[in-house]
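#onboarding

Welcome to the new folks! Below is a worked example of what a typical request in this channel looks like: someone posts a single protein sequence, and someone else replies with the predicted structure as tokens. Don't worry about understanding the tokens yet, we'll cover that in week two.

Example request:
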Amino acid sequence: MVIGVVVLAAVFFIGRVYQSEKGPSLHRWHTGSADEMRASEIDNATFADYQAREAAIFRDMQRNITDALSSEEKTGLNRFSAQSPVYPQRFDPDWNRTFILLPQGKVRGAVVLLHGLTDSPYSVHYLAQAYQQRGYVAVVPRLPGHGTAPGSLATVKRQAWVAATRLAVREATRRAGDKVPLHLVGYSNGGALALKYALDSLQDPRLPKPQQIVLLSPMIGVTAYARFAGLAGWPSAFPAFARTAWLNVVPEFNPWKYNSFPVNAARQSWLLTQALQQQIQQASRSGLLDKLAPVLTFQSVMDSTVSTRAVVESLYRWLPANGSELVVFDINQAADLGVLFRASSYSAVNTLLPAPPRRYRTVVIANMSPHSVQTEARITEAGEQTETRQPLTIAWPQDMYSLSHVAVPFPPEDSLYGSAPAQKERYGISLGVISPRGESSTLVVGLDTLMRATSNPFYPWMMAQVEARIDNAH
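Example response:
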């Protein structure tokens, strides 16, 4: 038995090392790590302290990475090269940094917006601006490990993200006061953090309670592989095998998001979702969940980053009848590529949702018919069994067969991710309009990365739903 385990471990070790050594070499932005505040430091810091440390981190990054690049590393699309068109610090604002938006006139509320894993505050800046325009103080923290260099995600702990969320809420309520509504908005991993804070506030009277929670592609559950991601990085304990600490090493050409992905990031996200799911169930059994604020979620039925099913079974299944709503974007059943769909894709929405009545409102955005790109909202009110259909003025783009995890928070006009950028290459590259054709082994990134939808044609409709929640806040 023992010999078998040893042999299995040896085989895994050798296989993992062999697999990783076939990939690209690590660079200084992979091997370095920012001097981020730990959770205990964040809990005892002011928001000004947090931003001061952030400024120091960016100065260190300039000195240790940008100023130290070799001539070979100063490529045209390296976000760490000062001469590159995608160098983040050439833009104003630098969306990798924490920011606060203050409304003009009377303050009507406070909102904290949390970005996703490997991401930056850029991914929620449209939502922050919408809240600001409606009188809200919008606080958007750069979560520890993000916005600098991907090596920082190789050492960060999820507790620091949770502490940064608490700090952002303290700052938002300090600026707006405690007599106005508090909203939490989270995208992807930020969705898990927003929900975790809301659950924590049910148990800790010192934490201000939110009156509304808005989630976009929330990380309620992740793939089973993430559970064992820590094992994949085990050989990196030996310096010669440092490459095994990374699941993906890709050139860094996106100014507002890491392309490379360390094992630790997968491990921390899985640990966060496990803790969150347990907390949801415990709060339900104890009756605390009855006090949770309404949750409004926007989720693509096709999502290769998070588990769509976990959104339903590990979150909405447990919610009380508190005015929560789940919006699901179905596939484009009239897409030209429909003949290539997996058979399960056609019925994905039908098998996802439990039979009505449900304690929450559901809205499915779908084709009006299998042969029409025109869309409709299929609405089932909480507690009802009948479905009503509301035609939309939005049609699926003919070349888009579904949304994706990363597409939900971005409008088609976004200059980086949009399919119809308002200002092309404003940030040095327009990823949403790249449509490569050629041999699959030629590019430094996989074609699946470049083919993934990066903007949401239903964004105007989605924002109208969010704005309605803002306007009805009390």
